[in-house]
């Protein structure tokens, strides 16, 4: 989902805390010191945290204590790995602002959003879903904070596979920001809705309608709007992923070219030496977006059998991801947003998945199993990633086993893939692979057991490529039974 750009300036005045108590002055000075160290070049985060901790040794009002808890909670969350301390301080800040009354509603809702970020990183969704739903009734008076809350709430529902409610939330956001006359945020909400629609390949017409609405809104944005390129990139990516899944090769190529041109422009425009106004919201950081573009280029190259091109961009993508990880460990890297490292890990696995398929296409079994081994090692580093990519790994291992003439092992891998497949397309690919295995090993009864699942007119998938593959399997079946006319 769309991310809120982090504004971390520790200004009491800017963060609407009234500086009306004399004994808050020491805390105010320490806050200024913390901000000095945080924004220092290079940053001195430990010193910033020490300044904030020192605030608790001074006399402070109840409200100022909550404010300091919020700032130290954010520091722990964004700049350290001590997520439990971040959670503790943010929850203290929230309860303090809740007791402070309606005057601090804006501040309380902002803290609630930060608490949600922490819990989402911990993969604990239900408590913050309830928290954000409760605060959504109070956040409407503050549009930007309300937008952030809606995006977080939609993401939580998506993480819980409740895509229906996620869709309702982003559609409500699009409608609200249309009324408020904020086309950039309206586009982000509409594209989030389009992304959910694109997960169902049968909803192509609905998706294109949604994309057209975004295109019409983009015309109303000023050319110098900081969000413009990010929105265009989001729009291109949603379409590319849909076209790839549906097997619409020409549409994929056209849209991918647009994304590549856009990313190249962003690389030049948003370079480190060029001052630029950052957008309040964006979908994905520039460097992560570059990595995603390389990944999509690899997938598109394989779909069009451009194996050398796929290898080239695979190497470039892996190098870019490695460089990103190295730079992220340095103190002068901007805030590492929640999910950024998970995205890079997922990109790596997708790259390995596709390059292993390329090695199989080139009849290189040793290279294939080497890549699959690397893929498995990366998957083991995260239970979430393993769960997400387990079916793909079993499918590729099944194809490898078939290639090296181990049909029984291949069948076991395909059956494991069927049990773990989480989407219609993966499930269909595995059934088609099993059907070929049964045909080539003369297991007619087993083939007919799959017949209903792989009949072109009855396929659950709307992918043109998978329908073509189903026709091929049926043609092969007819050919093996000497029904040549039917095979044609």
UniProtKB/TrEMBL annotation:
Do the record's keywords include Transmembrane helix?
Answer: no
Q: Which GO terms describe its biological process?
A: cell division; chromosome segregation; mitotic sister chromatid cohesion
One GO CC annotation, please? nucleoplasm
Q: Name one Pfam family in it.
A: Cohesin_load
For this chain, the family text in UniProt reads: Belongs to the SCC4/mau-2 family.
| Role of this protein | Required for association of the cohesin complex with chromatin during interphase. Plays a role in sister chromatid cohesion and normal progression through prometaphase.
Protein name as it appears in the record:
MAU2 chromatid cohesion factor homolog
Q: Which organism is it from?
A: Wuchereria bancrofti
């Amino acid at each position: 989902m769309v991310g809120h750009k982090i504004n971390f300036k520790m200004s009491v005045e800017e963060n609407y805390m009234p500086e009306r108590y004399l004994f808050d002055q020491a805390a105010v000075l320490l806050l200024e010191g913390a901000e000095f160290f945080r924004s220092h070049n290079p940053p001195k985060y430990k010193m910033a945290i020490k300044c904030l901790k020192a605030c608790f040794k001074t006399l402070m009002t109840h409200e100022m204590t909550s404010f300091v808890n919020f700032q130290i909670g954010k520091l722990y969350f964004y700049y350290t790995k001590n997520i439990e301390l971040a959670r503790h301080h943010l929850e203290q800040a929230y309860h303090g602002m809740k007791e402070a009354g309606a005057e601090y509603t804006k501040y309380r809702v902002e803290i609630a959003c930060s608490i949600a970020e922490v819990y989402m990183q911990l993969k604990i969704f239900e408590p913050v879903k309830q928290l954000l739903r409760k605060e959504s009734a109070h956040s409407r008076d503050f549009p930007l904070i309300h937008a952030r809350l809606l995006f977080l709430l939609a993401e939580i529902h998506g993480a819980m596979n409740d895509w229906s409610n996620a869709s309702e939330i982003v559609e409500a956001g699009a409608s609200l920001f249309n009324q408020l006359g904020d086309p950039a945020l309206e586009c982000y909400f509409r594209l989030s809705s389009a992304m959910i629609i694109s997960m169902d390949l049968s909803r192509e017409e609905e998706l294109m309608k949604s994309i057209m609405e975004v295109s019409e809104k983009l015309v109303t944005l000023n050319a110098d709007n900081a969000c413009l390129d990010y929105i265009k990139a989001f729009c291109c990516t949603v379409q590319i992923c849909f076209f790839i899944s549906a097997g619409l090769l020409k549409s994929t190529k056209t849209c991918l070219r647009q994304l590549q041109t856009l990313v190249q422009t962003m690389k030049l425009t948003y370079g480190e030496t060029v001052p630029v106004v950052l957008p309040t919201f964006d979908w994905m950081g520039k460097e992560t977006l570059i990595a995603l573009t390389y990944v999509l280029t690899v997938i598109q190259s394989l779909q069009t059998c451009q194996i050398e091109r796929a290898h080239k961009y695979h190497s470039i993508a892996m190098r870019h991801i490695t460089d990103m990880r190295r730079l992220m460990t340095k103190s002068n890297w901007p805030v590492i947003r929640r999910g950024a490292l998970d995205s890079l890990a997922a990109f790596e696995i997708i790259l390995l998945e596709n390059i292993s398929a390329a090695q199989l296409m080139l009849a290189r079994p040793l290279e294939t199993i080497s890549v699959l081994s690397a893929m498995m090692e990366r998957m083991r580093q995260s239970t979430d990633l393993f769960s997400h990519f387990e079916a793909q790994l079993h499918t590729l291992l099944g194809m490898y086993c078939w290639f090296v003439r181990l049909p029984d092992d291949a069948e076991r891998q395909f059956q494991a893939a069927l049990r773990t497949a989480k989407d219609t397309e993966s499930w269909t690919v595995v059934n088609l692979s099993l059907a070929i295995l049964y045909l080539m090993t003369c297991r007619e009864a087993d083939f007919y057991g799959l017949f209903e699942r792989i009949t072109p007119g009855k396929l659950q998938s709307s992918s043109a490529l998978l329908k073509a593959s189903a026709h091929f399997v049926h043609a092969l079946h007819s050919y093996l039974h000497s029904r040549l006319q039917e095979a044609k």
